[in-house]
Specification:
Layout (H helix, E strand, L loop, with lengths): L9 H18 L12 H11 L3 H9 L3 H10 L5 H7 L2 H9 L3 H8 L4 H7 L5 H10 L2 H12 L15 E3 L4 H9 L10 E5 L5 E6 H6 L6 H4 L13 H11 L3 E5 L5 E6 H19 L12 H28 L1 H6 L2 H29 L7 H32 L2 H31 L8 H25 L1
Helix pairs in contact: 1-2, 3-5, 7-9, 8-10, 14-15, 16-21, 18-19, 18-20, 18-21, 19-20, 20-21
């Protein structure tokens, strides 16, 4: 296989993607012609695609409409298909697999390591998975089946079985001779795992330490026994946080008897962090799952309708709150112009609070009595901001309408709505967490809905009480 060009330059890659899209669009109408391989666009497109790294190919596929995507996928290098399928988003992977026959799928995954086959297996047809398993030796079959048996968000579902282990009672010189027997070491090998005769983990020997120690030193004397290790049942997101905290490149995975069964690598942890970040962004916007940009209309509607329905209901509630005070608005027309300001600043403040709380929950910063302390702190911040910006808006209101009472109502309403936003900004994600839900799920939609209705009710209620 020809090594792809991965000299990373964002502007150059962007231009290359644009060129690929233009070529695919021009080639699409003539692709079915018998002499298409003589077409200059065809030749140029194939050359560009075969020079791409699988990660860049995945980015190209995700940015193309469905017809152009299928065309580009057909022209890509078959030997890279498995790597590309691993790189693309779940929604795009589904569309690519639908275009492939059984033999193509088997060829795409047959050379992948066991852990990567297991990652793709849930998206592959069952007959393909069965045939791929039959082609592997007994050890690899067990590894694939073991990985598939773990829940998607656990360490076991992403652990790697390719690792180097040694005994503690050999010298560093023996270890170096052993390593030289490998054609290539497993990716991200920054340490060697030290085990006993039963594969029980004893410690780790960092490569950088191995290279500088005395060749006659025993591994037991130079290895590190202080090891960050994981169980296959551990949460993958928490493992990723540990990788970030301790600056890990690899880490061992052990079973309940302390037996070494696999390892975690930093590339998988980066994927976990990215996926969790993307999921939080989608959930806060009320999207149920990651969406293919060029998915059929019906699929996008299914993904978005739930929280749009919720938003419609909350909007109706807000409209009825306004309806309760129609008489007040008729008498003081200025209320109609000012009430969106109260609702808007409450929504913005609530989103700030909820974003901070979701992040704190994701990073494990909240525990014990901290939520109560944070609640008090956020209420204090809301009161300070409410007095500050409410006063500023009160002055502007007085300049425009020359009504001191209206200005005071504006100050009070903004302060109270900011307090409401702060309280719900803390309570919504904490409640979702207690219920076992993603704390980011629809949080932005909910906080905006409540601060809109609450802001209208507070402002119009105070105006009706004190100005009429």
């Amino acid at each position: 296989m020809t090594e792809p060009n991965i000299n990373y330059a964002p502007d150059s890659i962007s231009e290359q993607f644009t060129q690929i899209q233009d070529l695919a669009e021009r080639l699409l109408p003539v692709y079915a012609q018998p002499d298409v391989e003589q077409n200059s666009d065809y030749i140029q497109l194939v050359e560009l695609l075969h020079d791409l790294h699988p990660a860049d190919m995945a980015a190209v596929l995700e940015s193309l409409p469905l017809q152009e995507r299928v065309l580009v996928w057909k022209l890509a290098q078959p030997e890279d298909d498995g790597e590309v399928l691993l790189e693309v988003s779940d929604s795009v992977r589904e569309t690519l697999i639908e275009t492939m026959g059984k033999e193509e799928l088997i060829a795409a995954v047959e050379d992948l390591p066991a852990a990567e086959v297991a990652e793709l297996a849930p998206d592959l047809p069952q007959n393909v998975v069965s045939e791929v398993l039959e082609s592997r030796d007994e050890e690899e079959r067990q590894q694939i089946q073991s990985t598939m048996s773990y829940a998607e968000d656990t360490v076991g579902s992403i652990m790697d079985y390719e690792l180097v282990s040694i005994r503690a009672d050999v010298t560093c010189e023996v270890v170096l001779r052993y390593l030289r027997r490998f054609d290539i070491l497993p990716d991200h090998t920054d340490k060697i795992f030290v085990v006993d005769e039963d594969d029980i983990l004893q410690g780790v020997l960092p490569i950088r330490k191995l290279l500088v120690c005395d060749p006659d030193d025993l591994v037991a004397d130079v290895m590190s026994s202080d090891v960050v290790k994981f169980r296959p049942e551990d949460n993958a997101e928490e493992a990723a946080q540990a990788f970030e905290k301790y600056d890990l490149i690899t880490a061992p995975v052990i079973d309940e008897t302390q037996k070494l069964i696999g390892r975690l690598t930093v590339d998988e942890m980066l994927d976990v962090i990215r996926e969790e970040s993307e999921a939080d962004m989608l959930n806060m916007a009320g999207l149920q799952e990651e969406e293919d940009l060029f998915a059929p209309v019906i699929d996008s509607v299914k993904n978005r309708w739930v929280w749009l329905a919720v938003n419609l209901c909350t909007a109706l509630v807000a409209s009825r709150v306004i309806g309760l005070f129609e008489g007040s608005i008729e008498k003081i027309v200025a209320l109609a112009a000012l009430m969106p300001i109260v609702a808007g600043i409450g929504g913005n403040s609530g989103n700030q609070t909820i974003t901070m709380i979701v992040r704190a929950l994701a990073t494990g910063q909240l525990n014990g009595t901290q939520p109560l302390q944070l609640f008090k702190k956020e209420i204090g911040v809301a009161i300070a901001n409410g007095v500050l910006w409410g006063s500023a808006m009160g002055i502007i209101t007085f300049i425009i309408y020359k009504e001191i009472g209206l200005s005071l109502v504006m100050i009070a309403a903004m302060t109270l709505n900011l307090v409401l936003a702060a309280a719900l900004g803390v309570l919504i994600p904490l409640t979702m967490e207690k219920l076992g839900k993603d704390p980011a799920l629809g949080s932005s939609v909910l906080i905006t809905a409540v601060t809109d209705s609450g802001g209208f009710f507070i402002f119009l209620g105070l105006a009706s009480l004190f100005l009429l």
